[in-house]
Amino acid sequence: MAGQPARLGLQLPEVISRLELFAPSRLAEKWDNVGLLVEPSPPKLVQRMLLTNDLTEDVMAEAVQRKVDLILSYHPPIFRPLKRLAFSKSWKERIAITCVENRIAVYSPHTCYDALDGGVNDWLCEAFGPARVTPLTPSLAPEPSVQLAVALPAGPQRQLDWVDDLHELCRQLPGASVEARYQDVVLDVRTLGSPLTSGPQPRLQLVVSTPRRHLATLTAFLGSAGLTSAATRLTTAEQLPEPSRGTGRLAELENKLSLSEAVQAIKKHLKLQHVRLAEAVGKPKDSPVRTVAVCAGSGGSVLAGQQADLLLTGEMSHHEVLDATHAGSHVVLCEHSNTERGFLARLAGRLEALLAEQVELVTSEADRDPLTVV
C-alpha cells in the first residue's frame, strides 16, 4: 500500500506450502476444486496477497490496480473445466486470462476452511456466545490407524504407571504442536476376560490406535518396557475421525436464547440489516434456542435431518426449508456469501503469523454479496 515499505515476500511454492499446512486440501469435500488454480511461470515472488470471498471481475480489476501477486479466493473461480480461454466469451475466462497476463496466482481453500478447526463454521457459531461446538460430520485422519494390543503388568498400580508413561511419550511424538502430537494417538485400556473370570485384580489390556508413522516409536517404547510379547496383536483399523474438524457444526449453547435474541445475535455478528426467518411449525415463538446447527454457504444437504432448535446457513431451497420447519427447527438464511465473508478479517490475522509477516495481506473492498434487499 502507498506509504508502506514493500514486504520481503516469499516464493510462491513456500506460500502454498504454508497455506496447505494451515488447512490441508484433504479437508475439502470430494466435489470441490481447491488449491492452486492459477500458477504463473516460476520464479514468482509473493509480496502482496488479496483476500476475497469471490473473485469477480470487479475484484480482479482491484487486484490489478493494487498490484497483488496472489489472490486467495475462498470460492474457486475455476470450478468446472474450461474448454477454452477466450476473452470475449465468459467472465471466468476473462479473469483467468487477466491473471496470467498480470502474473497473478490464484489459490482457493473453500470447504477446507469450512472444515478447519477455528474455520468459517466455528466463526459462525461465535455469534451465540459460549457453546460446546462439534462437527456434524467429522473429517477423517489423513491415514488409517493401526492398533497395537498388549497385556499390561499385573497389579492395578503397576498397570496405571505404564499408562501414565505412555501418555507422556505420546505428548512427545513428532508433530506441529503438543495438541496435534497427542490428538492422533488414542489410548484405550480394556479388561481381559469376562467380569466373572477376571478375579479381584482383573488383567488389563492396553490398545494403542496410532498412525503408522508413530508405530516404530511406540513399539520401541513398549519393547523397552517389556510389554511386547508373542501375545501382542497388531491390526489395521479404520481412519479415525478428527474431533474438531469436519462438515458443519452443532453448537450446544451454555446460555439459552429466545428466537428473537438469536436472530439479533446473527445480524450483529454478520453485520447485516436483514436476514430471512422461517419459524418452526407448532413451536411457540418464545420457545428457547439451546442448540444451533450451522453450515456456511449452501447448507441444505448438510443440515438435512439435523435435530436442532435453529438452523443457520446462507441458502436453502424452498422445500428444504419446509422440511426443516416441519421437523421442529427454526431456519435463518443470510444469503450465501454473507455467512462466509466476515471470516476474512479473522483469517488475515492468522495468515499474517503463518507467513511470518513477509507477505502483505489486503482484504478486497470490491467483494460483496450479489444479492441485496430492495
Describe the structure in your own words.
By secondary structure, this protein is α/β, with parallel strands linked by helices. Helix content is 30%, strand content 27%. The protein is built from 12 helices and 17 strands. The chain has helices spanning 12-22, 57-65, 91-101, 111-115, 120-125, 156-171, 178-183, 215-224, 259-270, 300-303, 318-326, 343-354; strands at residues 10-11, 35-38, 45-46, 48-52, 70-73, 105-108, 131-140, 145-151, 186-191, 204-211, 233-236, 241-257, 276-278, 289-298, 310-315, 330-333, 360-363. The strands form 4 sheets. The chain has a 6-stranded mixed beta sheet. It has a 5-stranded mixed beta sheet with strand order 2-6-5-4-17. Strands 9-10-8-11 form a 4-stranded antiparallel beta sheet, with helices on one face. Helix 10 (300-303) links the parallel strand 14 and strand 15 (310-315). The chain is globular. The two termini are 35 Å apart.
Would you tell me the overall average pLDDT? 87
Give the helix tally.
Answer: 12
Distance between the termini: 35 Å
CA-based gyration radius: 25 Å
Order of helices and strands: EHEEEHEHEHHEEHHEEHEEHEEHEHEHE
Summing up helix and strand content along with how strands pair, one would put the structural category as: alpha/beta
Tertiary shape: globular
Count of extended strands:
17
